[in-house]
Write a structure and sequence with these properties.
Helix content is 36%, strand content 10%. It has 321 residues and is α/β, with parallel strands linked by helices. The strands form four sheets. It has a four-stranded mixed beta sheet with strand order 6-5-9-10, with helices on both faces. The chain has a two-stranded antiparallel sheet with strand order 1-2. Strand 1 and strand 2 form a beta hairpin. The structure holds glutathione.
Length: 321
């Protein structure tokens, strides 16, 4: 996928995303605003003002879609699903307000140049867009889910707090571990440019899964006795694991199905509103195998595996739902 350089689209080479040792380099997100209910908020909370652009294949975008649903923000924050990444990056069939498709396709990079005409950087999803100010509020998924959790105040239909203050330190700590080993870990394996970088990244993924397998043998959720943001952040990677990361990203020392606790945990979450109903495995497979030609040049999408995420999860004895 290319990128914007001073507001112009450039088809770049993926090698530019690597460190000198061949390990994958993930650049920092550029837009870091917050929606808030306080009167001086830079982006004031309001129904219908903000719009979320995601792609069904993207795990970072997926966590924002889950949080939007869990917080009852469906009617407050609009949603657009992008299709396959192609020439000039992510596209959708619809734009927003005056930003509309010119040739039947709306290029997500137009949000970036509308917000900042000389933007230089990657064009990523998710994007939280402010329709009134015609600006990007935020394009960092970790922050967007916190915005959804607390930034809309009473506009959120569900008051359930995904990140209570009392658990915050533990949530932040497990999030760091999950990001390093799992969420970004699979990308470091899949996008490695040298054997050594791949070996190290792949081993780290399984070290992370081994640790989480232990933890989830004793408790129903990652943190404490309740669902939190930490679970929202782990789920998108786990649900893609056997269909995508095992083969496409070569994380194949074990399948997720070989970890009984993680596998049950995945199905436990999948059964809940906001989780399973935001998963489209065929679109996920098309996005990776069909969209990442640097990893899979033929674009052929494998037929399997067939996974029944609705099998009984057997986790009820570990704590309350
Ligand atoms: N830090 C960002 C990363 C998002 C991200 O990497 N999204 C991918 C899709 S899964 C993307 O849009 N990649 C396009 C690119 O890097 O050019 C976040 O978590 O929101």
């Amino acid at each position: 996928m290319g990128m914007l350089v001073e507001g112009k689209w450039l088809e770049d080479d993926v090698a530019r995303r690597s460190n000198a040792d061949g390990s994958f380099l993930r650049p920092a997100s550029a837009f870091r605003g917050r929606v808030g209910t306080e009167s001086a908020a830079e982006f004031p909370a309001a129904a219908g003002r903000y719009h979320l652009f995601i792609a069904p294949s993207c795990p970072w975008a997926h966590r924002t879609a889950i949080a939007r649903r869990l917080k009852g923000l469906d009617a407050v924050v609009g949603l657009t699903l992008a299709g396959l990444p192609r020439f000039e990056g992510w596209t959708a069939s619809d734009g927003v307000d005056d930003l509309q498709p010119a040739d039947g396709r709306f290029y997500i990079h137009r949000l970036y140049t509308a917000a900042q005409p000389d933007y230089t950087g990657r064009v990523t999803v998710p994007v939280l867009w402010d329709r009134q100010a015609r600006r990007i509020v935020n394009n960092e998924s970790a922050e967007i889910i916190r915005i959804f959790n607390s930034g809309f105040g009473k506009l959120a239909g569900v008051p359930f707090d995904l990140c209570p203050d009392t658990l915050r330190a533990e949530i932040d700590s497990i999030n760091d571990f999950v990001y390093e080993h799992i969420n970004n870990g699979v990308y470091r394996a899949g996008f490695a440019r040298t054997q050594e970088a791949y070996d190290a990244a792949c081993r780290k993924v399984f070290h992370g899964l081994d640790e989480l397998e232990q933890r989830l043998g004793k408790q129903r959720y990652l943190v404490g006795t309740r669902l939190t943001e930490a679970d929202v952040r782990l789920f998108p990677t786990l649900v893609r694991f056997d269909s995508v990361y095992y083969s496409h990203f070569k994380c194949n020392l074990k399948r997720l199905a070989d970890y009984p606790n993680l596998d049950g945990y995945l199905r436990d979450l999948y059964a809940r509103p906001g989780f399973g109903d935001t998963v489209d495995i065929e679109a996920i497979k098309r996005g990776y195998y069909g969209g990442q030609k640097n990893v899979n040049p033929t674009g052929i999408v494998p037929l399997g595996p067939h996974i029944d995420f609705s099998r009984p999860h057997g986790r009820d004895a570990l704590g309350p739902a």
